[in-house]
Amino acid sequence: xxxxxxxxxxxxxxxxxxxxxxxKPGSPVQVEIEDLALCPRYSALVFENVRVMxxxxxxxxxxxAVGLNPINNIVDLTNYIMAELAxxxxxxxxxxxxxxxxxxxxxxxxxxxxALNDEAYELTPSTVVIADAAGPIAIAGVIxxxxxxxxxxxxxxxxxxxxxxxxxxxxxxxxxxxCFDAFREGAGSxxxxxxxxxxxxxxxxxxxxxxxxxxxxxxxxxxx
Length: 224
Prior knowledge:
Elements: H1 2-9, E1 30-33, E2 41-50, H2 57-65, H3 73-85, E3 89-93, E4 101-106, E5 112-114, E6 120-122, E7 128-132, E8 135-139, E9 143-144, E10 156-164, H4 167-177, H5 182-189, H6 194-209, E11 215-216
Parallel strand pairs: 1-4
Antiparallel strand pairs: 2-10, 2-11, 3-10, 4-7, 5-6, 7-8, 8-9
């Protein structure tokens, strides 16, 4: 809304996210994008000393107001930012990821994923996925892998990912796999690469403000 008003009024947009607050040393993870036409931008941040706990009541109430069920402070924060920025995001338990490089790429023939909704999906090369060294960890812009989220973990390391994908690819993937969600349709139709970095920065700022004890262990490892 603020972006649209700024464009109509010819006024500069004041973005509340201060990306310069992120640490400058090298990131613990790397990002590789196989095809920039399919994924113009993908961002990754690693957080240490994170406490997974119930979200503050104000955050739970706001999620319920837009039709989402609160889960925990990490998942809720990604959903809150997705509602705010129309930017798909996902958080993973760093200890469950294979290797130190995250890939945005087309799925390989024969790959499959069991998603957060407990459904198993057979993937094809027409589907863009996010993968680690062992295989897909998310269907890009749609849904994450079930067993990689950080649940009931104290003082864990979390990886937060934020990506920009072509809306037609996201919509086509949802149609092919039947992964439709009324709330997430808005996020899937309005993505562009620059917001991926802003989404990651917003997560970092908001996480620090929610008294979870977490801290960013490196800069945005985004590739674009």
